[in-house]
Amino acid sequence: MSGLTFCDSRGVGVLVMLLRQSREQHSTLVLSAIPPHLGRILTITGLRTAFQIEASVEEAIPAVQAAPGPAAAPQPPSEADPV
Asked: Were both Cys, which of 29, 35, 44, 73 would link to 22 (CB 3.0–4.6 Å)?
């Protein structure tokens, strides 16, 4: 996110939507290299603690890899399974 030069309420809304979707899918969303202005926006809105934030992409990769993956989707019963 280091190249981000502007973020308004629509941008914050997209981040919140992505966070919600990642939680619904039991996956991990990590923000990395956020610019100071985005950090201030997240702090002012109270969202900074909702996101996992790492200083760089290099630090975010192990954080994502260490996170538990999505839960396995239940499989439909096969013909061999008793009903």
From this structure: 29
- CA-CA distance, 66 to 43, in Å (whole number)? 26
Q: Which residues pair with 31 in a beta bridge?
A: 53
Domain 9-66 has CATH 3.30.750.24: yes
Q: Where are the domains of the chain?
A: 9-66
Confirm if 56 and 32 have CB atoms less than 8 A apart. yes
Tell me what pLDDT residue 74 has.
46
